[in-house]
Each structure stands twice: as C-alpha cells, then as structure tokens.
Amino acid sequence: MFRIDAYGDMGLRVQLGKTISKETNEKIRSLALCLEKEKISGVIEWIPTYTAISISYDPYIISYDKLKNRIEDFREQMVSVKLPPAMVVHIPVCYGGEYGPDLETVAKHNGINVEDVINLHADVDYLIYMMGFTPGFPYLGGMSEKIATPRLSNPRRKIPVGSVGIAGAQTGVYSMETPGGWQLIGRTPVRLFDSSKQEPILLQAGNFVRFVTINEAEYKAIDAEIKQGIYQPKRETFLVK
Amino acid sequence: MGNYIFEVVKPGLTTTIQDLGRTGYQQYGVVVAGAMDAFALQVGNLLVGNKRGEAGIEVVIMGPTLKVLTNTVIAICGADLSPKLDGESVTLWKSFAVKSGQTLTFGKPLNGAYAYIAVAGGIETPMIMESKSTYTKAELGGIEGRNLQKGDQIPIGVPSTTVKAGIGLPIRQIPDYRSGRKIRVILGPDHNAFNSESIDRFLSENYKLTSQSDRMGSRLEGPSLSLLKGADIISDAIFPGTIQVPANGQPIILLADRQTTGGYTRIATVITVDLPYVAQMLPGNELAFEAISVEKAQRLYVEQELLLQTLSVAAGVY
After folding, report:
1. Locate the Carboxyltransferase domain: which residues (chain B) (predicted)?
2. How close B12 comes to chain A (CA, Å)?
3. A95 touches chain B (CB under 8 A)
4. CB distance A8–B24 less than 8 Å?
5. What letter would DSSP give residue B272?
6. Would you say B85 and B96 are in contact if contact means Cβ atoms under 8 Å apart?
7. Which of A144, B28, B56, B159 maximizes the CB count within 10 A of its CB?
C-alpha cells in the first residue's frame, strides 16, 4: 500500500498499511530515511505512526501537487533503501514494591506469580512503533499476552516519571509525571525525555527497548549517576533471532 | 542584556510567552505549542521591528496588569481585551511608546480571546529545543515552563535601530473576529468514515464553542456526527486545525497545545489562514464550516505570506 492524501493545507499523509505490523513499520522507516536523505525544500518535519507518515510542509515553498510528485518518486526508491541496523536500548527497571504497586494485581489477574510477570516482561526486545502521547513516550509492540491486564478503573492523579506500566496488551514507560490509568509494575531511573540535554529524547521509532531487571540499590546507584550526568543506557545492535 | 520590559503585578488568566512553536520534534512526541493566533503575533513583531517568529506575551481573555520597567516601543495585536496604558485606551495593531513606571492593564474582552504583546527586541527567555514557547504540561519554555505569575520580570533583547512608535497595520488587513465568516476546511483524512448525511450536517449546521476549550483545542457542541463504524482509529498524526470526532459525535478542533498523535476519527482540517478565527472564538460563539480545495487554501496561504513579507520589508526586517 502507498496512498497519498492531502491532510489540511500544510500536511500530506502517506498511508503504507492498514494494520499494525513489523512490515508496515519497516516501510515507514524506509520512507522516513528517504525524506531525511532527500531534504526536500519546504518540508518542515514528519510524524511517523503505526500505518502512515504525515509530513508537514510550507505551501509557500512547495505546493501539494509538487510535493506529491516528489513523494511518488519514493515509492520505488523506498524498496532499495538499506535501513541501518536497529538499536536495542536497555532500560533498567526495579520491579515491584513502591516502584511497581500494581505488580501483584497483574500477577493475580493472569493467575501467575510476580516472578513470572517480571520474567515475561523483562529481557524481551520491544519494537518502538511510534512516539507520542507525551514527549519521548514510545508505543511498544511485542508484549506477552500472558501479562495483559486492563487499565485501572480509577486512574491515578499523578504517576511518577519513569514508571513502567501495562495497559491491556500494551506496555510503556511514563516519560513525564502525568495522570494515568496504567498498571504500574516497576520504575526506571532513566529519563526518556530531558529538555536540558543536547539530545532531549532517548528513544526513536524503529528501534527496540529491552527492560533489564535491577534491584533497589542498583536503582539508586544509577539514579545518582544520572544526576551527575555520567550515566549512559546500554545500546546494542538488534539481532534477528 | 539584563534589561526587563515588565514586572507582573497581576498575572491574568493564563499569560504565557509564545513564539511560533517548537517544530521539528513532533516525531518524538514533543508538542509544538506556540501562539494560538500566529498571524497576530507575527504582525505585532513586525510593528516593533522584530523578526516575525520572535516571542511575545500571549494574553488570554482576562489580561494581566504589567508595570513597565523600561522606555521602549511595544504593540498589541489580536483580540481586543481593552488594553489601557495608565488608564488611557491603547490602539491595537499599532506600535506605541511606553515609559518606565507606566502600567499596562486589560479590561473586558470585546473582540476575540488571544492578544499578543510584542516588544522591541523580543522576549529574551531561553531557547528550549529551538523555541521560547511555553508548554506548561511539560514545563517547557517561557519562564520556568509555566504561566506568568506575580513578581515575574520579563527579559527583553536589543531593539532594532529603526524601531519607532506609530507604525500600524493597514485597516483593511485587520481581522474582525466577530464577522461570523465561515471557517474553511479541507475534508479528511478520515471523512470516508462518516455517512454522507453527517458530512452534509457538518458543512451546513452551526456549532457552538463550549467552555471546555483551551490552548489544546476548541470543543464544539452541535448536531451530532455519526460514524459508519467506530470512532477510534489506529493512533495517527494530528496537525493544527485537525477536527476530531469522538464517539459522542461532537467535533473538537485541535490547536497549539494538541498532542502530536491521536486515536479519534478526523473529519477535516481547518485551513491555516482561518486558524486565528477559530482560536479567537469565545465560549458561546457559533461557527459554520465550508469545504474548499487544497489549491484554494494554499493560494490563500501564499497571499498571507506575501502580506507578511511586504510588512517585513516595510519594517526593515528581513
């Protein structure tokens, strides 16, 4: 699928699939790479999502019809694009206790014990399909159905930044302190969004996240390193298993 | 520079520092924010010899009381919120001199909701991710990422050498937010998710702005729009002016503080030159929509861009 539509007078949307899938995600990454390389004059930025890329542009510099033609050229170019290897970013997580007050709820809901929940949640490479909701928040795919749990019926007013949660079949990390209804199973000291940094956003769509189990002492040690500005989350190249 | 334009005596409803927004980070989920009425901010800047995209002070419905701390030139553009300098009414869309010790106040909202104070030299708060715009939910930009509060002093940059008082926008270019003109839209991207009666209704009936409207979006109330299937889509991008329709059938127009993505069906997107007219509506005001082509919308955009460029040349700002 490759369908171009106008989206307002400063937007152009390219739909590349109809359902959430790794194949569609790869197409979206390929098109994003074409846009990055081509640097079409007038293009301001683009938002990759599950099934589409929406491009914002300045119609004073390039009209919809002209931009549409340029994007059409990518239809074939995309196929031969060699994507850089995806990276896996390790996110250390202290599960349970005050860091993950809903860990037992998730275990009970699924009829397993808390260790099983941790084992099923950690050491899995989750694909970052898209970013949104709050700055730096990744929409992750690939969580085991064995730990899927509905949202809280009564959302919390304040969720600590770094909280790792489950909502239905999704998992994610709160990038900001916000209200929310996710079941909280742990917390990371790593910040997904820090506007004071040269690179404020830790993650990127198309890469992977792997949660790595740490204890409370390790949490505090990493937290201290983060505050000194010396902590770097581990990154490795994603290997297809 | 260590120079300040105002000290905040009373903060007003939600007074913030805004420029044209934090673009370039939407793919990472970073909200754009920026002026709700980008045309008014840009004109204000040009009238005081600033670049169009410089930051100004956004004043909403109930304005602040500001004590002037330096002798300079400012302009107020956008909504008529009855601004007064030491009790004397101030002309909108025209630069004027202020002196240290004077007080700028606002009164009744007479026409529109968002006014912009542009100051010669621009507002000199730090650039956060290439923008000075305040986004309070993530505590970004402006002064400590929040609304202005009592006691804040607003820093300014160095004015251009050519700045002078009495420079105004030609009267026929001044927008009238009460004109009741139709809000023009481009249908899509999800208009096929609605039955044709709903599209007809959307383009013929009046919708009223509710009080649950803010910088994030304008919530409307009116004839319900029905979807062929459900109201939810796979999360997808949102642009300024995108009109979402959740399951209750009542449209929401997304504005400056919108999230970058959303999961509701999008019936249409307001054209760029009409966005100020949406932003400037007050709760209870009504609007009607009209669908136009992308080509026409882009012609109108180019016309407005040329006007702003002409003003830039006239103001000696490039």
Report:
1. 27-307
2. 25
3. no
4. no
5. G
6. yes
7. B56
